[in-house]
Amino acid sequence: MKIDAIILREIHMPLVRPFQTSFGVTRNRRILLAEVQSEGLTGWGECTAGERPFFSGESTDTAWQVLVNELGPMIAAESPEHGGECPRIFRTVRGNPMAKAALENAIWDLEAQREGISISHLLGGVRETISCGVSLGIQSSIPELLEIIEHELASGYQRIKLKCKPGWDVEVFERVRNRWPGIMLSCDANSAYRLRDEDHLVSFDGFDLLMIEQPLWHDDFYFHSVLQKRMNTPICLDESIRNRRDALAAIEMGSCQIINIKLGRVGGFSEAIAVHNAALERGIPVWCGGMLESGIGRAHNIALSTLENFSLPGDVSASSRYWTDDIIEPEVTVTSQGEILVSDSPGRGYEVRTDLIDRLTVRKETIRAMALVA
Ligand code: OSB
Ligand code: MG
């Protein structure tokens, strides 16, 4: 499969409403897209790095530098046949998984189109529908949060995840549980707590939470294992799990009972499948996390979520919760049962609105293989 050109773009997309986590507020996304052209086909990938290096060490700007100077030229030179070859091609570049995933996932999209099957089928997916939950940011008041939850439940979403931090936790859970005793409810701290908060975290056990996501340090396994021994609520790791070896270490140490898989955080589909399989073999359920993606990243998240062990509702939700105008057609929609119907058309299953992307683009770079001098 000859790669004719790689086109990298940065697009700016304002969120419908601000999204607040324990580490900050996002109002406007700066998203990098990778378009890979090969023999008349076009694969697309999205880089899920944040605008600032708060979720992980990557940001839109670091990813741009690494894609333009390192990873793009590597793919142009090697013209991989399969998305699964990318980790080998990228092996000399350490870290930078979100930058790597943007290109690797575009190659999987191309490969699926060449084979005439969906990315889901190429990955070995087994689901025709996926179960959806929502991740709700920190709000300025509890009544505002309750109103949002009411709306999301009425839309059909199967699970509500609340972003939390010290000062926005037990009182919130109490009010939500009083109103909705039976809903599937979880929380995500994005590393907002420390060991001195142990007794406070153990008190979360009173709210029948499906899980608590990443309560402690972003790079920790050991202290999560200590905390898990004291808590009944299952711990789910997000930030800590960068690859299959991390998943094995976390499971073996008892640091978590559930794993959140994000394509960008683990470096693309190959490693996501490896983490999925490691968890499956050890009886640990997984679900697909989100990073405020545009439609391209969303389409890839949907394909990943069709693998067997994605047995809990994920954070993959409707385009309209984030964007007035998504860059794919049709946009992602969720049924009144809280499910996304998986497209079986070749590749990512959604058309890309290149006209809209052109209007949103603020920088663009084209990379081709160096012409051989005769
Ligand atoms: O930890 O899951 C997270 C968004 C940005 C950074 C980290 C996280 C999130 C979310 C959003 O929870 C989930 C979504 O995209 O809907
Ligand atoms: Mg998380």
Protein topology:
Blueprint: E1 5-21, E2 24-38, E3 41-47, H1 60-78, H2 86-89, H3 97-115, H4 119-123, E4 129-131, E5 133-136, H5 142-155, E6 159-163, H6 170-179, E7 184-188, H7 198-202, E8 212-213, H8 222-230, E9 235-237, H9 244-253, E10 258-261, H10 263-266, H11 269-281, E11 286-288, H12 295-304, E12 328-329, E13 339-341, E14 351-352, H13 354-360, E15 361-367
Parallel strand pairs: 5-6, 6-7, 7-8, 8-9, 9-10, 10-11
Antiparallel strand pairs: 1-2, 1-15, 2-3, 4-13, 12-14
Helix pairs in contact: 1-3, 9-11
Please give a handful of descriptors for the protein shown.
374 residues, 4-stranded antiparallel β-sheet, 7-stranded parallel β-sheet, binds 2-succinylbenzoate, single chain, alpha/beta, globular, binds magnesium ion, 13 helices
Provide structural commentary.
The mean pLDDT is 97. Helix 1 (60-78) crosses helix 3 and helix 9 runs parallel beside helix 11 (269-281). Helix 8 links the parallel strand 8 (212-213) and strand 9 (235-237). The longest helix has 19 residues, at 60-78. This protein has 374 residues and is of the alpha/beta class. 34% of the residues lie in helices and 22% in strands. It is globular. The strands form 4 sheets. Strands 5-6-7-8-9-10-11 form a 7-stranded parallel beta sheet. It has 13 helices and 15 strands. It has helices at 60-78, 86-89, 97-115, 119-123, 142-155, 170-179, 198-202, 222-230, 244-253, 263-266, 269-281, 295-304, 354-360, and strands at 5-21, 24-38, 41-47, 129-131, 133-136, 159-163, 184-188, 212-213, 235-237, 258-261, 286-288, 328-329, 339-341, 351-352, 361-367. Bound molecules: 2-succinylbenzoate (OSB) and magnesium ion. 2-succinylbenzoate binds next to loops.
